[in-house]
Amino acid sequence: MPDRAAFAVRHLTAGYADRTILEDLDLTLARGRLTALIGPNGCGKSTLLKSLARLIRPRRGRIELGDGTRLERLSAKAIARRIALLPQSPLVPEGIRVVDLVAYGRSPHLNAFGRLSDADRDKVQRAMRRVAVEALAEHPVEALSGGQRQRVWMAMILAQETEIVLLDEPTTYLDLAHQYDLLALVEELIDEGRSVVTVLHDLNQACRFADELVVMQAGRVVAQEAPRAVMSETLLAEVFGLDARILPDPESGAPLIVPRVTSRRGPAASLSAEPPHSTTV
To answer: Which CATH architecture has domain 5-272?
Structure first.
């Protein structure tokens, strides 16, 4: 396994009940980088992410961490100390306050008595501060907006303090400004030495923020490389069924995807406007 790997996935076959989603998948995910999983709906992105967190057990094959440890040999608590997962639609315990939900992130690190120490409470406060939900600490989570809840869940992930963070569509429910705030926060986690693997549907955000794209189709990986090396008009057509131009992003130089869509205003009117920064597929 490469020294800089976060995960090594070998001959992975996984799925649900009698339905196979991933079959004989081989993949190495880099340590200390932001990797974005992209692909059409139903291609296996979320199934792969759940497999990396061992929420789904492989039918065949194995998943190893960067030090060679096989996930199957770790206890649930040991995994939670190393890997944090924010799923698409996490369930909120009834009546729980924001501060208590964020404190759940400390659970894998608590002593035998299961009590928060002063150091744990400090980490909970710092996590809430980083995503600007500190003022909501005493509010019931169920009373919050979807965007506020998403930021609270992210605070819980931060409080968990794991070396690997897995995010399944983390910008869901967030307005545009908070989407970019969250992605900037993810960049900070990379700068701190963590590894982040995220599912993103917005291809322009994936191209702008990710160090590496893993493109999936029908349960297999069809491309894996830096955004500028991966993204092409041919790939967009073959994988996403999207007819689009690719231009350099004027802010970052990353690939910027501009769909060729004829609206009732006509193609000339669409292309004369500033290129969109949000292409969700």
So the answer is: 3-Layer(aba) Sandwich (3.40)
